[in-house]
């Protein structure tokens, strides 16, 4: 029974040394992370804008799809791609930079209440009456989808 107290008295604790090593390691790691942000090695991802966009109309006779910006952030047209997909599995998917599609009267920003008219000639296929279409609005700097409304061509 005397062995236990003797062993405990003779052993020195190593926890202070381990504690110091861990604190130094944590400090070095945190300094590296801060330096990465400061010197631009680590970049924060750009946020995807939030906007509610609907398909106002799709007309087979006029060959146009009208997209309405209902609410949310203004969208810089040079940062937006429109991907139109026919949901009937026979129509191809086509992507177009919104800046190429909008009229020259646009000021470079797609704001609430404004409409964008997309012609079927912009995508190389028609909006066949009765077919469903999706217009995916993609923010290219972040790679995120702003909106993906669907509608049926009339």
From TrEMBL:
Keyword Zinc: no
Entry keywords, A to Z: Membrane, Transmembrane, Transmembrane helix
Organism of provenance: Methanohalarchaeum thermophilum
Domain Archaeal Type IV pilin N-terminal: 12-86
Protein name: Pilin/Flagellin PilA family
Domain of life: Archaea
TM segment ranges: 20-42
InterPro entries: Flagellin/pilin_N_arc, Pilin_N_archaeal
């Amino acid at each position: 029974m005397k062995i236990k107290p003797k062993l405990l008295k003779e052993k020195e604790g190593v926890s202070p040394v381990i504690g110091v090593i861990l604190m130094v390691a944590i400090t070095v790691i945190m300094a590296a992370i801060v330096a990465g942000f400061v010197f631009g090695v680590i970049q924060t991802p750009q946020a995807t804008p939030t906007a509610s966009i609907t398909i106002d109309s799709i007309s087979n006779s006029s060959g146009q799809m009208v997209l309405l910006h209902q609410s949310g952030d203004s969208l810089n047209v040079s940062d937006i791609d429109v991907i139109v997909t026919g949901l009937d599995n026979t129509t191809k998917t086509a992507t177009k930079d919104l800046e190429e599609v909008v009229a020259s009267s646009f000021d470079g920003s797609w704001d609430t209440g404004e409409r964008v008219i997309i012609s079927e000639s912009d995508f190389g296929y028609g909006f066949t009456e009765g077919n469903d279409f999706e217009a995916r609005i993609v923010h290219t700097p972040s790679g995120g989808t702003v909106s993906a409304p669907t509608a049926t061509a009339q």
